[in-house]
């Protein structure tokens, strides 16, 4: 995985080479090269797709809900146990 600062530094260096070229690039060629530069940089980062992120958020929400339900159940059982011990 590439550190964010290193990624930004590399991106900056590549972009400056595109901007400071001796012959200006036509707009569509510049856009193509810049997109390729970004895609190459992003491929070096440890990123997940939006789909994967949303999927994991759903799993996390379900897990939290189940954990909260278990905590409530455990509290109830502890209360019952405390009542039984007192008797």
Overview of this protein structure:
The chain has 87 residues and is mainly alpha-helical. The protein is built from 3 helices and no strands. The chain has helices at residues 4-19, 27-43, 50-86. It is rod-shaped, with a radius of gyration of 27 Å. The termini are far apart.
- Cα-atom radius of gyration: 27 Å
Main sheet properties: none
Number of strands: 0
Structural class: mainly alpha
Number of helices: 3
Query: How many domain regions?
Result: 2
- What's the N-to-C terminus distance? 61 Å
Helical coverage, percent range: over 70%
Sequence stretches where pLDDT stays below 50 over 5 or more residues: none
Percent in strands: under 5%
The SSE order reads HHH
Average predicted local confidence, pLDDT: 82
* Morphology: rod-shaped
Write the layout of secondary structure elements.
Elements: H1 4-19, H2 27-43, H3 50-86
Kindly summarize this structure in a few lines.
The chain is mostly helical and 87 residues long. It has two domains: 1-46; 48-87.
Which structural traits does this protein have?
87 residues; mainly alpha; 2 domains; 0% strand; rod-shaped
């Amino acid at each position: 995985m590439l550190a964010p600062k290193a990624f930004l530094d590399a991106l900056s260096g590549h972009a400056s080479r595109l901007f400071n070229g001796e012959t200006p690039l036509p707009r569509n060629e510049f856009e193509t090269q810049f997109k390729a530069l970004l895609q190459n940089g992003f491929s070096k980062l440890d990123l997940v797709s939006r789909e994967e992120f949303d999927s994991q958020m759903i799993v996390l929400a379900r897990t939290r809900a189940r954990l909260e339900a278990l905590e409530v159940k455990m509290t109830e059982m502890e209360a019952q146990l405390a009542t039984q011990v007192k008797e």
